Amino acid sequence: MTYDLTPTTKIENYEFAFSGYQRISTYLTEQIVNQLKKKADVTIAIECYPGVDTDDLKQQLVDKLPVDQSYFADDYAMTPESLNQKVADTVTDDRVLGVMSHYQVADFYPDIKTVRADIVTGSGVTVVYGTGATVLASNPDILIYCDLARWEIQLRYRAGMPNWQQDNADEDPLRKFKRGYFFEWRMADRLKRQLLPKTDYLLDTNDKSEPKLITGKDLLASLKVLTKQPYRTVPYFDASVWGGQWMKQHFDLPDNGQNYGWAFDGVPEENSLYFQYGKVRIEVPAMDLMLTNPESILGDRVFARFGAEFPIRFDYLDTMSGGNLSLQVHPMTEYIKDKYGMAYTQDESYYILDAKSDSSVYLGLKDGIDHKQLATDFYKSAAGEIKFPDEKYVNHLPAKKHDHFLIPAGTIHCGGSDTVVLEISATPYIFTFKMWDWGRIGLDGKPRPLHVDEGLENLQYNRTTDWVQKNLVNQFTPLTTNSHERVERTGLHATLEFIDTNRHWIKDEAVLKTQGSVNMLNLVEGEEAMIESTTGDFAPFHVNYGETFIVPSGVKTYRIHNLHPENGEIGVLQAFVKE
Ligand SMILES: O=P(O)(O)OC[C@H]1O[C@@H](O)[C@@H](O)[C@@H](O)[C@@H]1O
């Protein structure tokens, strides 16, 4: 078996799952007719995640229903000019970074009394659709939620989709993404959290030509299933200026004509989930699970600390036959809080999944360097006057398979070429202050944005060679050894980072504890393994080499079974939030 690109949870008992607008509109028409037998006036609200194709929705669904009047919610939102004024502090002028917004969708509908009254008094069948439909029609007879995954939104941005209420089809996709990340998705997720528990139907609009409809109850029941068993998110892959060829070969990825640098496999804020209902497969954002079941997934302790946010992120950085990442720094906790409104920072680590003889990691400063000169050289290299003399300032360390480099925020770092990194980090991932990008241009033909000022403000000058070796490189502590397994703690940094990682080398089988936290794991050595319930509560769950999987806190204990003991030990990396 190779890496599964479409991990799917099969749902056995469900009411129905329809695909295609025709089938969906026929069904909804029947529901409207049924409602009309009970009452004279029926209101339907179709709430849309920003990015849903509302023209399509109108033509293919709204116009096909027996409707007396329809309202496109977005038409009643404030003008783009007023909206931009209102969110200027959140969106900012930076190309990459904004400030986490506190907005609610309703904040952008300041003047809707009249239309609300019209909707309430309208006779016959009224449909309100768009982002903010439920702000206009807050108590509909039928509520439909149109969902869309973040990766699909990003692909649509790149293909020219504007942001919500904007006319920015041609804008830099980095800026569109920033607007989504800091503003639109936060606001939409807040509304979604209120609506999912009461929605009558979920419309999956990821595939424009083949939308799918299930009941809200079935969605909630399906999400509940995942709170009691291991599961995987649907991975996605993206090219990068430094990207490599390893994932293409090892994960059997389609040829994209260039490279794959990134794999998002274990970023619950961005990835999605697949559920199978008979012949119909539904895709929903993995955020839906967080928004509806945060305590069961995270565990009380982690939920109390992070709220409905999944705090651990696994992703891949593949530079095999590619280039170096940028030389970079992440913000310290106080800085990210004060400047970007984030509750915790981008603490990281690089687990080396595969390497060549020349693989390396840049980590921490050298001893005895001149700090002023360092800053001058960063500015000069940013201005294109010199090539940054990294060998003068930054440690360049050899990296081999199964090494683990810890990268608490404030530490200068960079992954070298010819390396496959499994990044095991805190969830934030765009707070990267690039300080030197090796003088190259990005895939879009422009230099990638540098943040030298911010980087210098956060650089920890005391993290030099000795400290780095003693604190950040292969800090392995043996925990237990028995006839079935060897367990070692491999990271992350003991006091500076909140994630712990244990590595289990399993001969035949071993029982793991969730440690009162959600667990995120990856099979870092061995072809395949089976995750089994110690209490018979879930069916055996199969994992292949390199797959990231999640075990909810409530599972408490689970067995990992080496399916090929004759081939030697398997290695499993287990991450959790430490006590
Ligand atoms: O920023 P580039 O050079 O693409 O580096 C790739 C990535 O490296 C990782 O360590 C993370 O810090 C990411 O936030 C970063 O974006």
Task: Count all strands and give the number.
Answer: 31
- The CATH architecture of the largest domain is 3-Layer(aba) Sandwich
What is the total number of structural domains? Answer: 3
Assign the structural class, choosing from mainly alpha, mainly beta, alpha/beta, alpha+beta, or little secondary structure.
alpha+beta
The hetero molecules present are: 6-O-phosphono-beta-D-mannopyranose
Separation of the first and last Cα atoms: 36 Å
CATH level-4 homologous superfamily of the largest domain: P-loop containing nucleotide triphosphate hydrolases
Helix content: 25-40%
The biggest sheet, with number of strands, parallel, antiparallel or mixed sense and barrel status, is: 7 strands, mixed
Q: Which consecutive residue ranges, at least 5 long each, have pLDDT under 50?
A: none
The largest beta-sheet arranges its strands as 2-8-7-6-3-5-4
Reported by name, the CATH topology of the largest domain is: Rossmann fold
Q: What is the rounded Rg?
A: 25 Å
Strand content: 25-35%
Compute the number of helices: 17
- Give the CA-based shape: globular
* CATH top level assignment of the largest domain: Alpha Beta
Q: How confident overall, as mean pLDDT?
A: 97
Core attributes:
579 residues, alpha+beta, Rossmann fold, 17 helices, 31 strands, six-stranded antiparallel β-sheet, Jelly Rolls, seven-stranded mixed β-sheet, single chain, 27% helix, binds 6-O-phosphono-beta-D-mannopyranose
